[in-house]
Amino acid sequence: MLNRRKALMLLSGSVIAPKMAFAATPREIMWDDLIPPGLPYSEIIGEGELNEENDSWTPIYDANAIKLNENLDGAYIKMPGFIIPFDTSAEGVTNFMLVPYVGACLHTPPPPANQLVMVDAAQPWPGDQLWDPVWVTGTMSTQLQSTSLGQTGYSIVADEMEVYVW
Fold it and tell me: What is the pTM of this model?
C-alpha cells in the first residue's frame, strides 16, 4: 500500500523526469537567431569606409550591432561556426571565438558584436582541426565583451563539440 509520502515522491519524479530529458536536448540555432526578433540584418551593418590605399573596407556599425537576443540568455543550444583560437596548447584549444564564416576577424573586418560568440570548451578541440566548421553545444549567455579581435555579444560554456557536416 502506498502512503502519502511515497505517492508524492512518485508524482514528483514523473514531473521532473520529462523536464530533465527536455533540458538534455539542445535547441539548434543559426546565426540569424542571434539577432533580436524584428531587427533586420540590413539595419546592423552600415555603409562603411573604403580604404583604397590598403584595398580594404571597414564596416560602420550602429547601435543595432550590439542589440542581443535576450531569449537566448541561459538557453541550452547547439550552433555551427568556425573557430578563431585565443589560446592553443598541445592538447588543442579551449578558449576561442566562434564566428559565422572562415577568416572572420583575421582576414576581414570583424562582424558585429551580435554575430560573435566567445566559447569556453570543457574539452580541448584538436589543433589540427581549427579550420573545420564545428557544432558547439552548451549554455549560452548574452554578454558584451571586448577582445583584441572585436566586441562579442554572446558566450557559450560548451560541454560538447563536433565537426559540422552539411
Answer: 0.78
